Amino acid sequence: MSDIEQKSIDTAAQEVLKKAEAENIQTVWDRLESQQPQCGFGMLGLCCTVCNMGPCRIDPFGEGAQAGVCGANADTIAARNLARKIAAGASAHSDHGRDVAHTLMLLSAGHTHDYEVLDVEKLKTLAVEFGIDINKPKEQITQELAEKLLREFGRQEGELVFTKRAPKKRQQTWQNSGITPRGIDREIVETLHTTNVGVDNDYKNLIKTGLRCALSDGWGGSMLATDVQDIILGSPQPIRGKVNLGVLKENCVNIVVHGHEPILSEMAVKASNDPELVKLAREKGAAGINLAGICCTANEVLMRHGIAVAGNFLQQELAIITGAVEVMMVDVQCIMPALKEVASCFHTKLITTNPKARFPGVEHIEFHPDKAYEVAKQIIKLGIDNFVNRNKERVNIPKQEMDLVAGFTKEIVFQILGGRYRATYRPLNEAIISGRLRGLAGVVGCNNPKQTHDLFHTTLVKELIKKDVLVLQTGCSAIACAKQGLLIPEAAKLYAGRGLQEICEAVGIPPVLHLGSCVDNSRILTAASHIIEEGGLGQDLSDIPAAGCAPEWMSEKAITIGFYFVASGVYTVFGASPFATLGSHNLTDYLTKGLEGVVGARFEFCDDPIKMAELMIAHIDKKRKALNLKPAMYE
Ligand code: SF4
Ligand code: MSK
Fold first, then answer.
1. What per-residue confidence (pLDDT) applies to 146?
2. How much of the chain exceeds pLDDT 70, in percent?
3. pTM summary value
4. What pLDDT, on a 0 to 100 scale, did the predictor assign at position 413?
């Protein structure tokens, strides 16, 4: 395998990496190399910088120091570090949710006219969940709902409203273990408090705080972000799109949206079709305006509008290195600081838009929901003006692009399987009960240059569908598999086992369903709750023959997602060391064994995609057996 093949399995990425090498442009892979060897204490979670008596470190071989200056041991330090990461991840998703809820509030008060309630049904469903009488004008419902949603963040007691969506038995488990989330901000703050120097020194108790914090994200901040986005941007429907760097167009003004929050990028979609701007682009010699996305902002505009996806996390620099991007507009999360440097090698204008996420020396055009369309137009106009500065000699857009279908939600799964007039999960449950479907898997998360780009996602997912496991995906993992052609209905014939193939062909779905962005992992939780409600597959989420996995994760948000999956009863496999090599044996044991007795699920750490699939399938089979189901039909 060549050096470049080791970096990525994606031939489009490989092509641009060659260009980067030839033009002496540093990428994430080069920087990873220059970081070698990475800090062993950090990798093991045994470095503590919590107070100024440190930094302290624990000798993993038991020969040197076994306690920090304050006396904290490996268990406390590793658990504290992990809990802080959970809080950081939860804060990112949840703050995203807060901004979306705030937009709903502005809309209801008439302070923004660029958004409207597009999914009235969902508005009403949420209103009922929040105890709002829906026999009143839509505007009033919207305002009351926005107020109540925003109160979930500052809630001091009781339980987050969305936790009621979980099966009763799961709610009971949370209560018994003391991890029912109370308020979104409260759980994040409490995690940060208890991980201060000299507060909580019990690794199990630290993990308990972390689990509650993670649940406040999965069944709180993220779920809220997903549902409110559906209300104001419209609920996704299955939609065809294209993916990979080949979606950039040589003859067009290329505008790339990147980050996570779709509120502005939604307006960019509208502005890219603005006749005045399209005319201007033509006057500048372009054939039109081509909008494409990276990371989860891409997933958001893909599933609502079919906007093309240029790539996942590790392709953000590569998109610019094609030399064909006029503007990359970024919002929050997963945006590499290195983009400034890479953009400076080309004519590309990097534009930050969120007051929370700025780069020194980078043009900032601040987004506010009350002038959303205006800001989007301004940014796209900058891109059009920049088209003439493109150096055609340096443009090299790979040809690779692949079709995909995205836009599956818990409601759509109902409709597709049960028919619009008899929306039900029954056929899905029956398929699992009969063994035609072996089970379900949620494969999510990022890329990490420590692993060959996209290799783990695609190898694992191919293995799962071959064994009749229907795969639900979000985030960069979905993009990885889409690029390899796994997210089209035709993939069933090529890659799926006979049982899964029969189901996909009967209803015309791909064997791998794209459920959206990272906050949309909450869709997996609600879909799983519907499965239990439908009956026949146990009483709790932990009874379902299902497993989760983040094979190439890198972000703290992925840790939070893993923790809320496990806290919700989903056996979850994590790839990508250092998580696979925690320095505290007690903590590792607790996460991979002990948690089962607390929440009915546990973690597994593994750095081999085939082995990951085997672990997940073994777990699925174990759950089938526990439910007294026959073995999978086509073993
Ligand atoms: Fe060291 Fe304890 Fe301070 Fe951590 S909290 S840096 S282990 S003294
Ligand atoms: S964008 S969190 S790299 S999935 Fe959601 Fe991708 Fe991970 Fe960011």
1. 98
2. 99
3. 0.97
4. 78
d(CA 629, ligand 1 centre) in Å? 51
* 50: in domain: no
User: What is the pLDDT at residue 543?
Assistant: 98
The rounded Å distance from CA 564 to ligand 1 centre is: 28
User: Domain with 107 in it: what CATH number?
Assistant: 1.20.1270.30
Domain that residue 348 falls in:
245-394
The residue whose C-alpha atom lies closest to atom 2 belonging to ligand 1 is 70
Residues 6+ apart with CB under 8 A from 628: none
For a pocket test of ligand 2, which of 85, 93, 295 has the largest count of ligand atoms closer than 8 A to its C-beta? Answer: 295
451 and 489 housed in the same domain: yes
pLDDT digits (tens, 9 = 90+) for 566-599: 999 999 999 976 666 789 999 999 999 999 999 9
Parts of the chain with a pLDDT under 50: none
Helices (H), 155-260: 168-177, 184-194, 203-216, 222-233
Please answer whether residues 244 and 483 qualify as being in contact, where contact means their C-beta atoms are separated by less than 8 angstroms.
yes
Phi-psi region of 146 (alpha: psi -120 to 50; beta: other; left: phi over 0): alpha
Report yes or no on 37 lying in a domain: no
The number of folded domains in the chain is 3
Q: DSSP states of 284-319 as a string?
A: TT-S-EEEEEEHHHHHHHHHHH--EEEE-GGGHHHH
pLDDT the model gives residue 206: 98
The pLDDT of residue 175: 98
Query: Could you tell me if 381 and 427 lie in one domain?
Result: no
Nearest CA to ligand 1 atom 3: 51
**Final residue of a structural domain among 232, 266, 296:** 232
